[in-house]
Amino acid sequence: MTRRKTTQLQIFERGGASAVRYDLTQPHRATITIPNKSTWTSGPHWHETHDEYLQILQGRALVRVGDQVRTLGPEDGIVKVPKFTVHEWQRAVGNHFEEALMVREWTVPADGQKEGFFRMLNSFLTEPQAALLHQPLYPIPSWAEMWLERWIVPLQLFIIFQAWDNWPVLCGDDSGWISRTATHITFWLSSWIGFVLGLHGSYDEYIDKGALVRGSHDTREDKKVLL
Predict the structure, then answer these.
(1) Sequence ranges of the domains in the chain
(2) Does residue 51 contact residue 81 with C-beta atoms inside 8 Å?
(3) Among 141, 111, 125, which Cα is nearest to 27's?
(4) 198 Rama sector, left if φ>0, alpha if ψ -120 to 50, beta otherwise
(5) How many CA atoms within 13 Å lie on the side-chain side of 155?
(6) β-bridge mates for residue 162, sequence order
(7) Higher local confidence (pLDDT), 9 or 143
(8) Is the pTM of this model over 0.85?
(9) What is the CATH code of the structural domain delimited by 11-222?
(10) Binning pLDDT at 50, 70 and 90, where does residue 143 land?
């Protein structure tokens, strides 16, 4: 199986009950649109090397940052999510929230992490046969191959999350060390199993690393001009 080349794509769309659209036109930002009735959620997660910023551009979002949960709209401005803070956002529920929800996300430092993560995530999830995209380092019996295919997608996702500083809450109290340790151990084991199966945190077919570096440099230059 070969991977699709998606380095030139600026828009990624996924359908179904949890439909979502990612606009990566701006290298250091992502604009995420959640259509009406979509059940998409970012899921509770945290970042360890980046502060994240959210801005509601349209619609109403249910946003959780740490212990605070609020329904926010465009009038509420920019929401800062400090590193190591568990957060989650999704559409606010209600009959009067009929328009699509549109949220802009970016990180500090603006080093291409946000775009790289969404490119990897969506490129993999939109592959026609994602479960077959692995190249084991050693020969695997056919019976084991069929069993492994059920685990390729979650393994690859865990490896992507770890590589791009996105740490989901997997169990326990999401504000405590038990939950965070469980995520780290799970990712550590996944990375070793993934290595044997030929899975990586980034692929040249999905990400033009040179473009990410250039985009990050342009962002720093823009900040100098603003200052």
Answers:
(1) 11-222
(2) yes
(3) 111
(4) left
(5) 22
(6) none
(7) 9
(8) yes
(9) 2.60.120.10
(10) low
